[in-house]
C-alpha cells in the first residue's frame, strides 16, 4: 500500500485532542431535578465520573475516533498496489513508431508491448471493456470499447510499427476523449523516445526499451541534373559514441557506390554521389544496431516522370513538338475517337474534337467538351483575357498567363469542378471525380499566342503531371489516392515483395497506409507506378527511451512505468465509506439513547 | 411558604372528592399511645374519670364521688372501692406538610399528594372530634393553622391545604423545633415530606422522639425520583438550592443512583424502626384513595 499524500497523516494528531475534548466536554444540558441529594450520594460509586472509565466504555467516542481516523487516512490518499490494471474500462495505446522496432528488448519493443497488452486482455474480468488506439503518424482508434476479447486480440495482433514517428501525444489525448466508464484507465506502451508525454489523468505509461544505439539512413534521394543523375544520402547517429559505417548502394543488385562513413556521436553525415541509369536504387549500411529496419533505404529515378500520352485530333504541331521534348513515357497521335484505343495511355489529349461521352481516365481537353462532364459550351466569346488564375494550383505553378492573348474561346458554363484561370469567361477548368481527371482549355492553341509563351511548356508539363502523375514520393503512413482511370483494380507490391489487391472506388485507388519505407509498385493494365516511401525522418530514428510523466505531478516516473504491470487501487473511497458508517452508527446510537448525548 | 389567598369554597372539593370524604367519615385515627386530651373526646385517655369505659378499681378516699362507689364490691368485701373509668378525650393531631420547592416534582406533584393526605387525615380527625393542626414548612417560613376541632372546621383545613404552594428549601430540623416549641400537648404527629434535606432527616425525628410525640412519617416521592428517566451528559440542578452536579447518566450511573436510593430508603426504615416511628413510603403514582383506604389503615394510622 502507498500513500498519495502522507503528510495528511499528521491529522491523526487531532485524535488525542478529540479525546481531550471529550473529557473536557462541557456541553451538558441543564436538567432540573427536585434534589441532587441522591445523585451526590451515588457519586462515590459512579463510574461515569472517572474519565478513564468513560473512555473505556464510550462506544460513541470510539466511533468518533474511528470516523476521524478514517477521514485522515482518506486524505492521505492510500492506494493498494495490485498486479494488472484495476478499475473500469481500459484503453490500450500502442506506440507504432519506428523506434518500437528496436531489438534491445527481445524480440522487439513493440512485440514486448503487444505481449503485455495481450496478457492484460486475457486477464480482463467479464464485463470490463477495452479499446485500442494506435499511435501512428496519425492517431487512430483501431477498436472502440468492446468486451469481445477475441476481437481485441485480433486487433492487437494486426498492429505493426511503421517506419515513421508516431504521434503518441495525439493518441493519448484521443484515448482520453473516449467515453471511459468510472475508474477507467489508459495504458500506454511506448519508448517515449521523442516527445514529452502528456500527463493525462488515469493514464499509465509502460516504458519499453533500454538502448539508444541506432544509426539510420534518414534521407536518400536521386535527382536528375544536366550532367546525369546525383544521389543524396544522409546518415544520422543517434548514439553518443561515434560510429564508422560501411555504406553500399546498389542498382539492379549491382553495387554502384560503396563507402565507409564516419558518423560522430549524436551527429550526421551527408553523402552525395553520381549515379547512372534509371529505376530503383537501394542503399544499405551495416551497423548491427538496435533498429536494422532504418539501415536500408530506396530511391527511384524514373526514366519517364510524365505518363504516356495519346494525342487525339487532326494534328497539332505545337503539341506534337512539345511532346517530343517533354519526358513522357511515350507519345502517340491518332485521329480515331474510339475510346477503346485510349486504355493504355496515362493521359489522352482531345484537341478540337467533338467527342462522345468519355470513359474514366485522364484527359487534357483543348476546345473539346465531352457531354458527360459537368461543363458545357454555349457559343464563343471574343477576345477573352486571363485576368485571374490560381497560382497555388499545381497545374499553374510557375505559369505566367498575364500576357497571353486569346482571340476567341468557347463560352464555358461550369456545373462543377473548379475554374483555374479566366476573366469574364472560364478559360481553364479542372475536374476530378468518378475516376476521371480532366483539364479543359477553352480555346484552341492556334487561337492564341500561348504556344509562343514560356508558360506553354510549363503549363503542359504541369498538366500532364497532374493528370497522369509522375513518380510518387510520400512519407510512411501518409494516405494516398491515385486516379484509377479505366482500371477497376490494381496490384500493390510492397518493398518486401508482398502483393495485395487494391480495388478502385469512385474511379480512384485509395491505398492503405504504406507503413514501410521503400518502393511500392502499383500495377494496372495501363502500366506500373512506383511509389517511394521515404525513409523515416531524423526524429523517428531516435530510440533512446524516455521517462513517463510522473503521476499526480510528483517528481520521478511512476512505479508502474517499468517492471511488472501494477496498478494502484485507491482506498480512500473505502475510508470515506467507513467514516460515514461510523458517523451514522454514532448518530443512531446517540439518538436511540433517550435524551441523547451527542 | 405561605398559603396563597383567594381560595374559594370549592377548595376542599378540589383537594378531595366529596365521595371520598364520605368514605373518610367511617375511619378514625389510631394512636398507639394514649395521650392526655384537653377536652372530652371519643378517645381513651390516660386521664381516668368520667368516661364510659371501665378502667380499674381503687380504694375509696375522702373526696371521691359517691356515685362511683361499686356497691357490689362493698357488699362482698365490706370495703369501699370506687370504679375508675378511662376518660375519653380528644387526640391532638399535628399535620406537618413539607412545602419546599422539591415537593413540586412529580405528576401529580408531591405537594398535592401530601396536601391530599393531610386533608384526609385531618378530616378523619375532625370527624372524630380530634384536635387537628396543620403546619406547612420549608426552611425559612412556616404557616400554621390553629388547632381545629369539629367537622365544621374541615372547610378551613381544606382551604388551608389547597392554598399551599412550593417554595423555599427543606429544613426539617428547624421546622420540627419550631413546631414542638409551640405545641403544648403531645399527640400524634404526621410528617409528610420527601426528606430531601441536605442536613438529614434524623435531627427532626430525634426531636420528636425526645418529646415523646407519636410520629407517623409519610415519605412522599415522585416517580422520577424513584426511577430516573434521564440519560446523557447532564447538569442536574437542584430545585431548592440551585446547586448543580454534572453527571453522565448511563446505565452505570443509573445503577449507582439506584444503589444510593436504596441505601437512603433503608437508612430511613432502620432509623424509624429503631426509634418507634411509623413509616410509610409512597410515590405520586399511587392514588390518594388507595393510600388512605388501604395503606394508611394497614400502616396503623387509621382504623
Question: With helices defined by DSSP (H or I, 4 residues minimum), what is the helix count of chain A?
Answer: 11
CATH architecture of the largest domain in chain A: 3-Layer(aba) Sandwich
Radius of gyration of chain B: 23 Å
Radius of gyration of chain A from the CA trace? Answer: 38 Å
Number of domains of chain B: 2
Mean pLDDT of chain A: 84
Average pLDDT of chain B, rounded to a whole number, is: 82
Helicity level of chain B: 25-40%
Distance between the termini of chain B: 32 Å
CATH superfamily of the largest domain in chain A: Class I glutamine amidotransferase (GATase) domain
Give the class-level CATH name of the largest domain in chain A: Alpha Beta
Uncertain residue ranges of chain A: 552-559, 594-598
Give a quick summary of the entry.
Chain A is of the alpha+beta class and 598 residues long. Chain A is 21% helix and 34% strand. In chain A, the strands form seven sheets. In chain A, strands 17-16-18-19-25-24-23-21 form an eight-stranded mixed sheet. A seven-stranded mixed sheet of chain A has the order 26-32-31-28-29-30-27, with no helix packed on it.
Amino acid at each position: 500500500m502507498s500513500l498519495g499524500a502522507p503528510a495528511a497523516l499528521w491529522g491523526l494528531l487531532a485524535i488525542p485532542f478529540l479525546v481531550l475534548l471529550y473529557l473536557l466536554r462541557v456541553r451538558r444540558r441543564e436538567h432540573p431535578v427536585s434534589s441532587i441529594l441522591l445523585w451526590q450520594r451515588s457519586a462515590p460509586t459512579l463510574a461515569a465520573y472517572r474519565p478513564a472509565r468513560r473512555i473505556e466504555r464510550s462506544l460513541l467516542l470510539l466511533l468518533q475516533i474511528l470516523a476521524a481516523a478514517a477521514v485522515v487516512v482518506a486524505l492521505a490518499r492510500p492506494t493498494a498496489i495490485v498486479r494488472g490494471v484495476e478499475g473500469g474500462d481500459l484503453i490500450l495505446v500502442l506506440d507504432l513508431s519506428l523506434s518500437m522496432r528496436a531489438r534491445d528488448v527481445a524480440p522487439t519493443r513493440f512485440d514486448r508491448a503487444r505481449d503485455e497488452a495481450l496478457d492484460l486482455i486475457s486477464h480482463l474480468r467479464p464485463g470490463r471493456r477495452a479499446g485500442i488506439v494506435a499511435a501512428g503518424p496519425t492517431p487512430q482508434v483501431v477498436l472502440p470499447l468492446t468486451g469481445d476479447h477475441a476481437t481485441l486480440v485480433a486487433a492487437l495482433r494486426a498492429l505493426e510499427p511503421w517506419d515513421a514517428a508516431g504521434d503518441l501525444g495525439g493518441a493519448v489525448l484521443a484515448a482520453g476523449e473516449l467515453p471511459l466508464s468510472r475508474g477507467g484507465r489508459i495504458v500506454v506502451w511506448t519508448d517515449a523516445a521523442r516527445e514529452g508525454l502528456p500527463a493525462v489523468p488515469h493514464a499509465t505509461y509502460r516504458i519499453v526499451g533500454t538502448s539508444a544505439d541506432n544509426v539510420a539512413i534518414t534521407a536518400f534521394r536521386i535527382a536528375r541534373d544536366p550532367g546525369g543523375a546525383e544521389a543524396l544520402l544522409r546518415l544520422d547517429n543517434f548514439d553518443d559514441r561515434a560510429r564508422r559505417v560501411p555504406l553500399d548502394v546498389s542498382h539492379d543488385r549491382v553495387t554502384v557506390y560503396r563507402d565507409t562513413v564516419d558518423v560522430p556521436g549524436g551527429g550526421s553525415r551527408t553523402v552525395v554521389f553520381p549515379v547512372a541509369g534509371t529505376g530503383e536504387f537501394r542503399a544499405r549500411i551495416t551497423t548491427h544496431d538496435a533498429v536494422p529496419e532504418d539501415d536500408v533505404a530506396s530511391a527511384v529515378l524514373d526514366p519517364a516522370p510524365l505518363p504516356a500520352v495519346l494525342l487525339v485530333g487532326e494534328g497539332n504541331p505545337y503539341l506534337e513538338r512539345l511532346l517530343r521534348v517533354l519526358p513522357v513515357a511515350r507519345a502517340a497521335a491518332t485521329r480515331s475517337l474510339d475510346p477503346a484505343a485510349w486504355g493504355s495511355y496515362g493521359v489522352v489529349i482531345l484537341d478540337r474534337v467533338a467527342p462522345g461521352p468519355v470513359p474514366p481516365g485522364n484527359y487534357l481537353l483543348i476546345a473539346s467538351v465531352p457531354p458527360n462532364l459537368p461543363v458545357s459550351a454555349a457559343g464563343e466569346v471574343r477576345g477573352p483575357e486571363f485576368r485571374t488564375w490560381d497560382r497555388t494550383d499545381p497545374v499553374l505553378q510557375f505559369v505566367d498567363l498575364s500576357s497571353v492573348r486569346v482571340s476567341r474561346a468557347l463560352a464555358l458554363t461550369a456545373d462543377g469542378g473548379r475554374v483555374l484561370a479566366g476573366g469574364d469567361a472560364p478559360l481553364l477548368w479542372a475536374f476530378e471525380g468518378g475516376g476521371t481527371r480532366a483539364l479543359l482549355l477553352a480555346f484552341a492553341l492556334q487561337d492564341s499566342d500561348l504556344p509562343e509563351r514560356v508558360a506553354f511548356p510549363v503549363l503542359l508539363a504541369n498538366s500532364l503531371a497532374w493528370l497522369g502523375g509522375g513518380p510518387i514520393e510520400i512519407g510512411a503512413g501518409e494516405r494516398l489516392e491515385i486516379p484509377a482511370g479505366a482500371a477497376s483494380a490494381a496490384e500493390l507490391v510492397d518493398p518486401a515483395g508482398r502483393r495485395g489487391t487494391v480495388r478502385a472506388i469512385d474511379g480512384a485507388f485509395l491505398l492503405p497506409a504504406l507503413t514501410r519505407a521503400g518502393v511500392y509498385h502499383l500495377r494496372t493494365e495501363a502500366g506500373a507506378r512506383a511509389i517511394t516511401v521515404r525513409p523515416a525522418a531524423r526524429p523517428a530514428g531516435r530510440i533512446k527511451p524516455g521517462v513517463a510523466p510522473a503521476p499526480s505531478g510528483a517528481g520521478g516516473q511512476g512505479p508502474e512505468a517499468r517492471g511488472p504491470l501494477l496498478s494502484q487501487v485507491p482506498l480512500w473511497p473505502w475510508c470515506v465509506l467507513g467514516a460515514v458508517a461510523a458517523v451514522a452508527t454514532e448518530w443512531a446510537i446517540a439518538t436511540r439513547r433517550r435524551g441523547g448525548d451527542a | 411558604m405561605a398559603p396563597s389567598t383567594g381560595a374559594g369554597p370549592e377548595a376542599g372539593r378540589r383537594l378531595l372528592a366529596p365521595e371520598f370524604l364520605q368514605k373518610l367519615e367511617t375511619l378514625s385515627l389510631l394512636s398507639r399511645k394514649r395521650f392526655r386530651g384537653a377536652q372530652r373526646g371519643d378517645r381513651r385517655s390516660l386521664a381516668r374519670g368520667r368516661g364510659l369505659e371501665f378502667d380499674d378499681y381503687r380504694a375509696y378516699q375522702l373526696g371521691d364521688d359517691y356515685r362511683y362507689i361499686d356497691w357490689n364490691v362493698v357488699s362482698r368485701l365490706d370495703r369501699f372501692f370506687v370504679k375508675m373509668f378511662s376518660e375519653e378525650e380528644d387526640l391532638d393531631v399535628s399535620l406537618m406538610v413539607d412545602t419546599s420547592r422539591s415537593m413540586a416534582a412529580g405528576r401529580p406533584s408531591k405537594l398535592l399528594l401530601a396536601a391530599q393526605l393531610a386533608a384526609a387525615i385531618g378530616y378523619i380527625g375532625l370527624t372524630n372530634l380530634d384536635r387537628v393542626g396543620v403546619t406547612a414548612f420549608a426552611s425559612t417560613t412556616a404557616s400554621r393553622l390553629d388547632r381545629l376541632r369539629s367537622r365544621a372546621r374541615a372547610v378551613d383545613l381544606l382551604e388551608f391545604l389547597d392554598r399551599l404552594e412550593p417554595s423555599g428549601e427543606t429544613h426539617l430540623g428547624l421546622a420540627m423545633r419550631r413546631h414542638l416549641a409551640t405545641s403544648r400537648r403531645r399527640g400524634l404527629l404526621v410528617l409528610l415530606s420527601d426528606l430531601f434535606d441536605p442536613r438529614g432527616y434524623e435531627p427532626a425525628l430525634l426531636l420528636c422522639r425526645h418529646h415523646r410525640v407519636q410520629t407517623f412519617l409519610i415519605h412522599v416521592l415522585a416517580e422520577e425520583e424513584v426511577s430516573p428517566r434521564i440519560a446523557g451528559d447532564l447538569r442536574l440542578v437542584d430545585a431548592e438550592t440551585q446547586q448543580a452536579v454534572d453527571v453522565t447518566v448511563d446505565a452505570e450511573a443509573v445503577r449507582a443512583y439506584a444503589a444510593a436510593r436504596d441505601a437512603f430508603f433503608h437508612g430511613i426504615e432502620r432509623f424509624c424502626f429503631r426509634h418507634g416511628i411509623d413509616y410509610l413510603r409512597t410515590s405520586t403514582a399511587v392514588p390518594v384513595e388507595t393510600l388512605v383506604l388501604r395503606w394508611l389503615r394497614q400502616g396503623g394510622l387509621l382504623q
